[in-house]
Amino acid sequence: MSKLEDLIEEYEFLEADDRYRLLIDLGKELDPMPDALKTDATLVRGCSASVWVYPTQLDDGRLHFLADSNAAITKGIIALVLETVQDQEATQILTKDIAAQLEPFDLKNQLSSNRTQGIPNMIALINQTAERYKK
Predict the structure, then answer these.
(1) How many structural domains are present in the chain?
(2) What is the pLDDT of residues 115-129, one digit of tens each?
(3) Which of 23, 26, 47, 93 is the catalytic position?
(4) Which pLDDT tens digit goes with each residue over 17-28?
(5) Residue 70 belongs to domain spanning
(6) Which of 130, 120, 116, 126 is nearest to 53 (CA)?
(7) 47 tagged catalytic
(8) Residue 80 maps to which CATH number?
């Protein structure tokens, strides 16, 4: 099972407070993002909290994203989004329906609209990045 499948399974059994904690813990697992990369160019527009996403390309061509947020829950959300695409080839990322992969988490009903309003923008940024890097 993939880490995403494990997360879905765990998430389904948790109460609301524990779901928040799971998201916060996911955010803590993100690779550290240097402050120098937290610029206007890496800022995801439309999020209630500040969210930065910076793509890097691994030696074999796969994309690895660095991300951070100034809000713990939002950092967990971007970590969850990245879990669907992290360390994959750009062409692979473009075939994924990221929003559909996130549906089991029912984020719209679990979190406030302020917390989830930026998710489509996060997904769009990832797809635009993959489009730029595809071969």
Answers:
(1) 1
(2) 778 899 999 999 999
(3) 47
(4) 899 899 999 999
(5) 3-133
(6) 126
(7) yes
(8) 3.90.1010.10
